[in-house]
Design a protein that fits this description.
143 residues, 43% strand, 4-stranded mixed sheet, mainly beta, 4-stranded antiparallel sheet
């Protein structure tokens, strides 16, 4: 399924990792996960986004299970984010236990912590992730 198929909601459209509303780029964060070991989106994977500040515990911003399109659908992601560091936590082992029934006593990947920085509060940060039970790739899409 192509992104253009998944993101047909008008006036909000995601094109090449960039979120648009009314024809202009929206600030915020979008998170999309694909299970490349099975060739499908990782619907149901638990994901959480935290703000990370020096000397303070991480602050939860958004969390939930990925939608049927593999996206974290939380309205908190549609706002401007202050410059600083953020962390996404992908609960990979739980996802594969539920999705495949496989439950090794010690999975190779458990919770992946992906820390990234935001420098431009007006920009949109699209964070696509590709994963298998044994590896992953995270990057900033559409930059």
């Amino acid at each position: 399924m192509s992104r253009s198929t998944v993101w047909k909601a008008d006036p909000d459209v995601l094109k090449f990792g960039r979120a648009f509303r009314g024809g202009s780029l929206m600030p915020g964060i979008s998170i999309h996960v694909v299970d490349v070991s099975r060739g499908i989106v990782a619907a149901g994977m638990r994901v959480a986004l935290y703000a990370v500040r020096e000397g303070r515990p991480p602050e939860l911003i958004a969390s939930g299970n990925l939608s049927g399109t593999g996206v974290l659908a939380d309205p908190e992601l549609e706002r401007r984010f202050e410059p600083g560091f953020y962390e996404v936590r992908f609960h990979v082992a739980d996802y594969y236990r539920t999705a495949t029934g496989a439950s090794p006593s010690v999975p190779f990947l458990d919770v992946i912590n992906y820390r990234f920085g935001i420098s431009d509060p007006q920009a949109h940060y699209h964070l696509p992730m590709k994963c298998t039970p044994w590896g992953y790739s995270c990057f900033r899409g559409g930059a």
